[in-house]
Amino acid sequence: MATTAKIQIDGSGPIPALQGFLRGLLENETLGGIMVPVHLFGKGLPMPTLVTDPEQLSGADPLAPAFPMNSAKLLSRLTRGQSGERIAAVMRPCEIRAFVELVKLNQGSMDDIILVGMDCMGAFDNVAYKQFLGDDEPFEKTMEFYKMSANGGVDIAPACKACEYPAPANADIVIGVAGADLSDHIPVMATSPRGESLLNGLGLPETSAAGRDEALEAMVAKRTATRDEMFERTRAATGTLSDLSEYLSACVNCYNCRVACPVCYCKECVFNTDVFEHKPWQYMGWAKRKGSLKMPTDTVFYHLTRMAHMSMACVGCGQCSNACPNDIPVMELFRTVAARTQESFDYVPGRSLDEAPPLSVFKEDEFQETVSHMV
Amino acid sequence: MSQEFEPTILAFVCNWCTYTAADLAGTSRMVQQPNLRLVRMMCTGMVDPKYIVKSLLSGADGVLVSGCHPGDCHYINGNYKARRRVKLLNEILPQFGIEKERVKLTWVGASEGNEFAATVNNFINEIRELGPMEARSMAVV
Fold this sequence. Notes:
The structure holds two protein chains of two kinds.
Chain A: E1 4-8, H1 14-27, E2 31-38, E3 47-51, H2 72-79, E4 86-91, H3 93-104, E5 113-118, H4 126-133, H5 138-150, H6 158-161, E6 173-175, E7 185-190, H7 193-202, H8 212-237, H9 241-247, H10 256-260, H11 280-290, H12 299-310, H13 319-323, H14 330-344
Parallel strand pairs in A: 2-4, 4-5, 5-6
Antiparallel strand pairs in A: 1-7, 2-3, 6-7
Helix pairs in contact in A: 2-3, 8-14
Chain B: E1 9-14, H1 18-27, E2 36-41, H2 49-57, E3 62-67, H3 78-92, E4 103-107, H4 113-130
């Protein structure tokens, strides 16, 4: 039976209580540091921060409804190669799923990492978070967000509204915020042997996560319905190549969506190579063939290629949309495509470390219908 | 319109099997329609999906990928990997109205010159029937 312990909340509220819990983790001699979102710059965005001094956790805000970037890429940097010390990382479920994909692609390692997953109520995109914050104190706004989301009335990012994975899988320790009474205590579960030994070392009182499953179930049902509506809407808007071009018409080939994507991991992307440094006479030739040529070129090509390269690993975190300077709903497009490609290979990204990425393996006897045979 | 339409087909063929079969079909003077452009690859396993996407967006009406029969790959398993990639494109491209019939995967061994000629002729006929690729009439790709 896995341990479920209790993070007691006293008069100062859940954020200091969580900070205390993290401080307890960090004081454990087996951990060298914790990566957690920290308010570093006043009313700026809380950024993932590698904290080694327990005193400096006073700005930590793991509950903040901000999601400036998917920290899976950062954790990949921290775990590729040896640091000699074990660290913990406080992450959203989609960040953990993206990290699992990166580990399978040899871009990181689970060996020296304790994943602390949070139940995720969703987050704002970067612009909306700044608006939400206004001139107020960030910690107070975080608590206001939780009150509002308990009543169901928060306008979180589209990716979060359509996310059917609010509970973290593959974490070592789970902070069960969903359904918790934030005026009393937050349940924290050990979900792996090493999480278990770490949590037991803290000596927290035992409890049960009453109401968590029901709260998660309700969230999943609502979000799945939103997701299916989103699929339908996106399919209707992109059914032909002309429709797709119109959908992507504001794209300026900045490739921000690729930079923000946690699972797009190539060190050198083909779209940044001299393959695409065309000569002036080539542009003239292409333009003359059809009478006109949209500049920049290769926009639809870029997006279709990305779908082929990463849709199998897409965790739907929505950072592509967050990074788009022209508000193209790229997350909607990628998730809609990914839903079909992932289903066709019976693959769920981030589900298990033991499932190989489909394009890295094959079976001899499969997909016969893909091959045309002469009669 | 479809009477006048002559499809352009791009074929990515592997050096060891289908390219040799194409050579055999040619030297044996088998009749093949002239709509095909061959690209000789070392293996179908190195045909990245983006080559196929780029072809379709840049004027090809159909793309043929053809390599060694299962078990015959010069690099042991490149053709199995090609099969997964074509399967992937079969799932992606139809979502944007690009018929999956436009991407064809076949296995044609080095000695099968007649198979190659027949595959090519059939595919050209199928695409002629299907009509031109939407990207042909678009200034934007």
